[in-house]
Structures
1.
Amino acid sequence: MGDSTRTQFPAGLLDQWAGLGIDLRALFSAGALGGRMGLRIVSASPQEVVGTLPVEGNTQPYGLLHGGASAVLAETLGSVGAMLHAGPNKIAVGVDLSCTHHRPVRSGLVRGVATPAHTGRTSATYEIVLHDEREKRVCTARLTCALRPATQQAQANGAPEAGAPPVE
């Protein structure tokens, strides 16, 4: 997802995750898709996640920012926020994403900001607003994530639970 080493975090957040053997920076990814798209997380906390996406390389045939590219940015930002809210012992799994596209963008960088609309014990919903470089709203999205124990995910993949020693 670009250079995540420049992501700004609140004091102590990295230590909270590192104490369990989890590399928080490595989790900030939309996978190979985010890397190919040039998606970058600028700052991240449970209260606000900020990221950018270049328009170039992420357009549809008319030369406009692809709606799916907006959705990738929105889902990534909202998922990072939900993950940070949930903490290192849970995983955030997207269950609903809706995007309303307000205006086209032909060039430049799109900036997204995800803020919580609801943060609970078993779910988190984030509102994500994308703007162009003129600060015009491009897209409004909402992502809801289910928050599940991390051990379920680890066991499903045959991996040890978070913070557990590797199985040999």
2.
Amino acid sequence: MNICVFLSAADLDDRYTRPAREFAELLGRGGHTLVWGGSESGLMKVVADGVHEAGGRLMGVSVDFLADRARTVTAPDEMVVAKDLAERKALLLAKADAVVIMVGGTGTLDEATEILELKKHGKTTMPVVLLNSAGFYDGLKEQFRRMEDEGFLPVPLTDLVFFAEEPLGAVAYLEESQGVE
């Protein structure tokens, strides 16, 4: 499976890096491909290193103004550089079979809402997981539930996103949803 991961390029403490490393190992050992923002820094680097070290493939999509921070890859891994953030998001999603939203800032939130909006309108059926490491997205989860309860979502929240508290649950959900044994 090609699994797109939206996440931070910031250097973060262990409560976020530990589950990120665990998730990356599970992806790599499962033979999956990481589709990610291509950065060689912060949490993005932690996940890319973990997937690579565990035997998975890397498919990066950097953006022109951040190309100097992109990871250098060799075949069979791949790196492309988009002209802007909109093209980057489109390429990331076009290369993906599934999406995992990990901890991040405004860029990650932008990417997350885009894929959820596409799902809401039936423009994609790929599974989306929100990995809630250290309760980072507890407030967002509550907001999504309020949106559902008050009629702002035309489809059930469970049809849009699966909330996973641990990496194993995230990967198990993705593999089950795609029929991977």
3.
Amino acid sequence: MSQHPSDPCRTPQAAPSARSLPRRDMRDATRGPFTPPAAITSRQTQHASELAQRYELLNRLGVPTVANEDFDDLARDMAAQAGFLYGFVNLFLEQQTFVGLHQPPVDSGYVIVGRTMSRDHGWCPEVMDRRKALPLHDVHASPRFSGNAVVDAVGIRSYFGAPLIHDSGTVLGTVCVIDPEKRPLAEARRLRDIVINASAQVMDHIARAPVR
């Protein structure tokens, strides 16, 4: 498995040219009003309730919902252990919000991403729904997971993610690593365990935050 050098910087990385990923919820303004089916409306109501619970818990725990150096460190360490180019500590707010982010230097030639992404892009929404780790050693190996806006926008071939679940049962978000190179299937268990352990570290850090 090829290894990528990790960025030694401890401060959050800023990139003016960060890639803005496409959104699936953009409607054609020329079309008339759209009335969603009842099932979609019910799902939206559930998401709104979950989001309110998430915000209330994060506020009560004193967890930052913006870029944070401690979370950046955790994302960097996770990516370094896995040998992946990108690492994320991701809170599901109005958008996926990368409070922890590790990625290649801006002059590396790799895609530089921003701190947010549409809630329905990537594979973290699947991790949120299933409430357990998702190991994808090669995203193209499964038709279910290969058709994703992130695949083309960032050129991703491998993804490993795990949920951030509070003791109350509330799912706050995810941790994940992504990379433009696929990984051997034999490495999947080890890489899955890395993100699961990173998830536990993030939740331990959150538990130590000052409770409001």
